[in-house]
Amino acid sequence: MDMKKFILLTTVLAIMSSCGSKDRGELVGVKGKKWHPEKPYGMELIPGGAFIMGKADDDLAGVHDAPSKTVTVRAFYMDATEITNSEYRQFVNWVRDSIVRMKLAILADEVGKVPDDGGIGEYAFKDADTANMSVYEKYMFENYTGLGPTGYEGRKLNKDIDLVFDTSEYPDEYYTEVMDTMYLPLEESYNGQRTWDVKKFKFQYSYMDIQEAARNRGLSRKDAIKKEEIEVYPDTTVWIRDFAYSYNEPMHNDYFWHDAYSDYPVVGVTWKQAKAFCEWRTINKNSYQKSKKGAAMVNTFRLPSEAEWEYAARGGLQAATYPWGGPYTKSDRGCFMANFKPVRGDYAADQALYTVEAKSYEPNDYNLYNMAGNVSEWVNASYDPSAYEFTSTINPSVNDDDNQRKIVRGGSWKDVAYFLQVSSRDYEYADSARSYIGFRTVQDYMGTQVTKNGQ
């Protein structure tokens, strides 16, 4: 082909490729859907910005683990309140129901029952009937279903039919058999009541360890994916174990499940359980987003970093002792500003013996409740007394998998005022649960940058 013919062919191809295009051959970028940030339910937007982290006055306790340091954090959303018993029960019930549905589907599969058979067949895997599958679903079913240790990985549960918990309405003996396995044996029951075997309420999830993947460039993607299995039911015995020679049986018996305490902060959860809750909240929201065609997936819910927690607790106030400013724990009317132990042995001087409802007292200037007192809060950080000396000044975070001492912040109903200070640091072990430790979650803000200085 001579040069003239080549140039002519190139020109024709160029004209044809631009025919029908609106970019006129210019570099205009790939156009996606217009992004409209949506504030997650129950959360407040915390504008990014810089603040002085650490002790702004004398370290009266002499711990010397929080020297002042100017750091900057990006914008994020944070729960306005601590996660409540009601909210955590939603997680527990979801895990319980998912396990029950899986057991029902497996048994239906083993005995050859399908939806048309009624009874347990109504809870069979959705792929028991392949007639209504899309092309993609059929492909995935034929090529990937069962490629795992149980042989049931990838199979979809039927969540369109409600579970039956009233024993008088169980549909058949197979259903009864499955439900029987979820309760404690009769010999472990009393007063004629059978209770759930909460040890079976286990949540499984996977995540990618991005920090490890970034440090080890030779690591395969598969090896960077971590799997966890966590028992999710709170440890209600903490009300007994945390206080020797003390009568707290009513809190043990009623606090988590009774509706009287639904709006109180959940306690008795470990750091690992709090992390599992964050993963579930992300999965739960994104499952809903998938059901709405065209809806964007949401960012991950997670525990706040230590810097994020302190920045949010300060509510925009620089060098303040408490979320409301300070340096006093009483208002000008003589009312306590938080739920804590103001007098030795007198837990009720602030009008609260144990915890109070999550939306109690006045919020700080970011509209966050109980960032001091009520319950201490897990954060996504490991305790290192010298951490402030070596952390970055932008979005500082120290979370070492080998260090099981995890930071708790904010002080609680059983703590003295020192631990309510926004700069005070404390820790507990990741697998420990306490009657005075809860948590709240955060989510990264996406879209236009929002900063305190820019508002």
TrEMBL record:
Q: Where is the Sulfatase-modifying factor enzyme-like domain?
A: 43-442
Q: Which residues cross the membrane?
A: none
Could you list this entry's UniProt keywords, alphabetically sorted.
Answer: Lipoprotein
- Tell me yes or no: is Protein biosynthesis among this UniProt entry's keywords: no
Pfam families cross-referenced by the UniProt entry: FGE-sulfatase (PF03781)
Query: What's this protein's name?
Result: Gliding motility lipoprotein GldK
